[in-house]
Amino acid sequence: MNDSTNQDLSRLKQMLEEVTAADNSVARTRNAAEGVPCIGDVTAERDDAEIAFLREAWLAFGQLVRAADASLPAMPNVLPTEPNLATPIALQKPRRSRWHGPIAAVAVALLIAVAFGSWISRDGKHKNGSAGVLPANDGSGAASTNNSAISAAVVKHDQPNTEVAQPEKATNKQPKTGTAKTSTWDDPPETQITSVSQQISNVEQNWQHRVDDVDLVQYRIDEVADSLQNDTI
Amino acid sequence: MMAADHEHGNQRRFAQWVRDHGKAVRGFLLAMVRRVDVADDLCQEVFCRAWQARDRYTDRGKTRAYLLQIANRLVCDRSRRDEPRTNLDEETWKIYEPPSEMPDPSQAAIMSEQIGLLHSALDRLAPMQRRVLLLRYYGQMGFKEIADTLEVPLGTALSHCRRGLETLRQRLVETM
């Protein structure tokens, strides 16, 4: 039972493949191999009245589809036909707003500023032992004085009267920015921003002073090294 | 560099697909939906989906069948989605569906006698018969493949094909 069904199915499939072959060469080749004569476009042997019948319908259908396709308006040029245009428009990612970049940059800058501010205030607390308000200059001033003391010691050992090694002079370089104070959580944002920006400028100035001091020490060390090398010390 | 080459290769392959199979896909869609504008939209959608899936596609020389499978799925989705609309009366239809710049089905039929004849022949076929014949004609797909695409047993696909051809013959051979 099952075998006969399969056979029927297989036979039907074969027949329909023959009927709906793209061209007649398939049927002709097959029939020629089997020694079955061909008459025109359709085979006339085997159970072939049906094949001829259906083949005729298929050919008429194909003819009609081709004629209908030919009379259609041209395909709109919405599809890519060139390699460099091959990304369909619908697939392009939506462009990001041009404001995203600047807004992100400002946000990051603010975050960094706040982080710096809090770091500075913590640093000041540690150094001064005072709570709440940071005398922004004091901590850096102390550091600067320490550096100046080091440089002075070096200079004293080398050339006591060298002008670059005057601790007073180094102290004079301290910026007069002692008015900055830390903000508290309930201050308005403008005040907090102002406070943070003042602290940032203080940090920048103090940093510059520290760099100057380090340069000075480096300069003196080089001089001492030269003197050692020349045995003039 | 290699990624760029790969992408460039994809683009060239895709452009080739459009050139080689665009007409067949469009013909299949038009025969299924009978509206040039809808067929063009769906055709675009077919190629968009193929492009999106380009990295997952393995070329086994059956590109057209692959594209027609996508097209068939889109037609099914559309007919499922649009089914309630067919029950609307003419006035309500006009409210929801603005007039298209493309010819409507009746105008399209007038546009060409062949199109009209084809449409009237296809109208006589059951949807499944139409699908089987169109997939066979445009995609040159094997019947097993058609059965898989339509998710029906092979015997069912063959029966649809046979009955569809019989119906077509009655209609076409007598008319032509």
What characteristics describe this protein?
heterodimer; A: 233 residues; mainly alpha; two-stranded antiparallel ribbon; 7 helices; 2% strand; elongated; B: 176 residues; 9 helices
Describe this structure in words.
The complex is a heterodimer of chains A (233) and B (176). Chain A has 233 residues and is mostly helical. Chain A contains 7 helices and 2 strands. Chain A has helices at 2-19, 24-34, 48-70, 100-128, 136-158, 167-172, 189-230; strands at residues 38-39, 42-43. A two-stranded antiparallel sheet of chain A has the order 1-2. The radius of gyration of chain A is 47 Å and the shape is elongated. The model of chain A is unreliable at 28-43, 81-92 and 130-180 (pLDDT under 50). Chain B contains 9 helices and no strands. In chain B, 78% of the residues lie in helices and 0% in strands. The model of chain B has no long low-confidence stretch (mean pLDDT 79). Chain B has helices at 2-33, 36-52, 63-82, 90-96, 105-111, 113-123, 127-139, 143-150, 154-175. Chain B is mainly alpha-helical and 176 residues long. The A-B interface holds A 9, 12-13, 16-17, 19-20, 22, 53-54, 56-58, 60-65, 67-73, 75-76, 78-84, 86-88, 90-91 and B 8, 10-12, 14-15, 18-19, 22-23, 26-27, 30-31, 36, 40, 43-44, 47-48, 51-52, 111-112, 114-115, 117-118, 121, 133, 136-137, 140, 142-143, 154-155, 158, 161-162, 165-166, 168-169, 172-173, 176.
